[in-house]
Amino acid sequence: MATLRTAVSLRPDIASLPAYVPGERPSRGRQVYKLSSNEVPFPLLPTVAAALADVGPDLNRYPDMYATQLVEALADHHGIKPERVTVGNGSVAVLAHVLTAVCEPGDEVVMPWRSFEAYPIAVQVAGARAVQVPVDAAGRHDLDAMAAAVTDRTRAVLLCSPNNPTGPALTQSEVRRFLETVPPGVLVVLDEAYLEFVRQDDPTDGIALVDEHKNLVVLRTFSKAYGLAGLRVGYAVARRRLTAGFRATSTPFGVNAMGLAGAVAALGCQDQVRDRVEQVVAERTRVTATLAEQGWDVPDAQGNFVWLDLGRRATSFAETAKARGVLVRAFAGEGVRVSFGEREGNDLFLDVAADWLRDRSGLALS
């Protein structure tokens, strides 16, 4: 006779999930600059604000379950067919749908590490095991090591370009060579959340590679360059056969009416979006140059953030910055990621960084 359980139990792998740590938020009553979440520091574009206002009176109704207008707008924007597009509640949710569609218990997913902290969570929830391949000393993907980590149990490989939180980006040539190395039965997911900020030669364009490689999926988001982090809209582009599976695992009505309207409106504001991105890139150039002048050795920053490889001093640096009025994102024992925000906040961060190096140099000499 079967023994009846006396309490509801969770899956063992759920109980052991790593926690996602969001960027710290400012507390009320104090001027604090939030550089901890890779957001852009601009208000909503007027066209987007107007679109959201128009949607407001109809929020008692369900949104379009198939996100038809947004899917068609994205297809037109990228010059592809709508049946290649899957939208979701942010690119993290889309990634979860992708992994759910392809992974089974016992499968492995190869990923760079340190990289986006949601990756191991999404992999484990899908029932697979994360195989983490360390980034190199410059914070870049070690693509040779990642290719070598692929086995007959590998179901997918995750690429993050630019890599969050270290900053360097892959090139189109590197991605193409990697795709030629990986077996065609292994899904390759190229996360291009920060693509718009890349200014290096030969930048990636994953969507241009989808025709060449049936096993490629490209993730994009409206949270970064488009400034819609609070609306949570992301999407994937892949071959039609894969897209059908991703859509089947997606949450019904997964993008709310505000998100759909805001994304469609933002997509039509390309000139304004590019102008804002250029402002962020200009601040990135200024801040990273100043850090170098101060004596910091930082990885190539191709996103809207910079990485300080502080190791076990990461938490201490973040606490010092917070006390000075600027929030940064500490990865305990590894480093600190700092987003580029308002100029005043960036300047305050630079003051903290300069004082930190000077104080540590003084300790070393004493």
Strand residues, percent: 5-15%
Q: Report, as a whole number of angstroms, the end-to-end distance.
A: 73 Å
Radius of gyration: 21 Å
Query: What summary fits the major beta sheet?
Result: 7 strands, mixed
What does the overall shape look like? globular
Total helical segments: 13
User: Structural class of the helix and strand makeup?
Assistant: alpha/beta
Would you tell me the overall average pLDDT?
Answer: 94
The proportion of residues forming helix, as a percent range, comes to 25-40%
- The main sheet orders its strands as 2-8-7-6-5-3-4
Uncertain parts: 362-366
Order of helices and strands: HEHHEHEHEHEHEHEEHHHEHEEEH
Number of strands: 12
Structure, explained:
The protein has 366 residues and is α/β, with parallel strands linked by helices. 39% of the residues lie in helices and 15% in strands. The strands form 3 sheets. A 7-stranded mixed β-sheet has the order 2-8-7-6-5-3-4, sandwiched between helices. A 3-stranded antiparallel β-sheet has the order 9-12-11, with helices on one face. Strands 1-10 form a two-stranded parallel sheet. The chain is globular and about 60 Å long.
How do the strands and helices of this protein lay out in sequence?
Blueprint (H helix, E strand, L loop, with lengths): L11 H4 L17 E2 L11 H10 L12 H11 L6 E4 L2 H12 L5 E6 L4 H8 L3 E6 L8 H6 L5 E7 L11 H10 L5 E5 L14 H4 L6 E6 L12 E4 L2 H10 L7 H11 L2 H25 L10 E4 L5 H10 L2 E2 L1 E3 L3 E5 L3 H23 L1
Parallel strand pairs: 1-10, 3-4, 3-5, 5-6, 6-7
Antiparallel strand pairs: 2-8, 7-8, 9-12, 11-12
Helix pairs in contact: 2-10, 3-10, 4-5, 4-9, 11-13
